[in-house]
Amino acid sequence: MEPVLEICGLAKSFTLHNQGGITLPVLDGVDLAIYPGECVALNGRSGSGKSTLLRTLQGNYRVGSGHVWVRRSDGSRIDLATASPRQVIELRRSTIGYVSQFLHVVPRVPAIEIVAEPVRARGADPATARARAAALLTRLNVPERLWPLAPATFSGGEQQRVNIARGFAVEYPILLLDEPTASLDGENRAAVIGLIDEALGHGTAIVGIFHDAEVRDRVAGRLYTMTEARAAA
Ligand SMILES: Nc1ncnc2c1ncn2[C@@H]1O[C@H](COP(=O)(O)OP(=O)(O)OP(=O)(O)O)[C@@H](O)[C@H]1O
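^ thats the input. predicted complex w/ adenosine-5'-triphosphate below
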């Protein structure tokens, strides 16, 4: 079986332009291959670069050096290091799902539409997309009275569940999860674990940050421990 995601010699540093142009090395020599149907948990102390790696895999941060090969459903591969912005947008629609820690709400867009949007973007008709969204919101215990409302006023846990529903609305080949259970109670944690299990069963490859050790031990088949980037000489 071929990996859906192959990270080779990835390095990434940030240049702080407003602080004298200091360069902060964060990732160095990351090598990791991820296969369909497996869940890899990023492990490491606070500040070791877990979120930076996840955002780089989503194409949100530019690759410093090295390669991040993403395999598309037609078998072709794209390297995020050289992908155009247009290709990155297309990969996010078709191949790479991402559940961030916080929902970035668009003003006035109802929760159900936020969840249905990725389904529609893949060509489903509005009724099918809304039905999928409704099923996920129900599963994640988001009360139906909230569905037509914009989530700006929702509680932290409600916003997170809308975000999770959106991330799982489509069966992406690759799903990136940034602390998907951080502000959830036991019942909703169990619902998220159920969704993760199903996605893995469908062959989705998951890379996640799970500070909740119980959830991590339950879903992750493998840990990838971040090592400190070599300090700049
Ligand atoms: N946009 C940025 N600009 C400058 N430095 C950044 C940026 N994002 C992250 N960093 C720095 O990179 C390092 C790694 O941060 P990152 O958030 O990836 O760590 P983490 O392992 O996810 O931490 P935590 O477990 O605390 O969330 C930190 O020292 C952080 O200050």
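The CA atoms of residues 114 and 166 lie 7 Å apart.
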